[in-house]
Amino acid sequence: MRIAILALSILASSLVSSVVHAGMEFRVLGNVHEIKADEINSFYTGQQLKEIHRLPGLKLDVAFNPLSRVFFGIRFSNSRLHLGDGTGPITGDTNFSKLILESYGVFTRIYLIESKILRFDIFGGAGGARAMVNSKKNLVEQGQGIKDNDLRFMQFAGGSLSLGYDKFMVLFEGGYEWARINGLSHYSTNASPRLTYFDLNGPYVGLGVVFRYQ
């Protein structure tokens, strides 16, 4: 009986040690996000600004893996775009607009392929997003300021391919984000037309690095 209990204990211990991990993973990703920008572009063209269709941004991930091949983490994303009117460099005499988008989320990542030189994963998560626009028509006309201090619900999903060796790899990531930011607050209303929402639904691709500590 004792031998059987000992054998079961050893088997359980080996199974737990093969499944349970205590590692961490850090990712930095530069990305380009394609957005449905009809409402934003209507506002921009009314301000004599260039239209936008893509947003450059940065994503930071921190995740831990309590289970083999499974990571739980948090993500911070930031996109900033400074636009002129297309007539030359942005100066105090030209029309310009600054667009800032931020999002925070939690996610689960599952590795389908994992080796020392190649890894492939899929992930999905949810969180909140907010935005701010500050436009200026010229030195004497302030233009329009818009902000959303509240986080609006967003979702994201995708996959990534990592190449390297062991703890440090270069990664290629593609995904899709679903977010619509309503309830924008206008703290200056001299300009028109008024912007009422951001539709940020769209795909993104990015290139970055991943570091794993175990």
**Helix segment tally:** 2
Q: Structural class, from secondary structure content?
A: mainly beta
Instruction: Compute the average pLDDT.
Output: 76
* Sheet with most strands: strand arrangement: 1-2-3-4-5-7-8-11
Gyration radius, in Å: 23 Å
Helix content class: 10-25%
Shape: elongated
| Separation of the first and last Cα atoms | 37 Å
Major β-sheet, in short?
Answer: 8 strands, antiparallel, barrel
The share of residues in extended strands comes to over 45%
Q: Uncertain runs with pLDDT below 50, 5 residues or more? A: 4-8, 10-20, 85-94, 138-143
SSE topology string: HEHEEEEEEEEEE
- Multimerization status: single chain
- Count of extended strands: 11
Question: What secondary-structure arrangement, pairings included, does this model have?
Answer:
Elements lengths: L1 H18 E15 L3 H9 L7 E14 L2 E15 L11 E19 L3 E19 L7 E4 L4 E14 L2 E14 L3 E5 L8 E2 L2 E12 L1
In short:
The chain is mostly beta strands and 214 residues long.
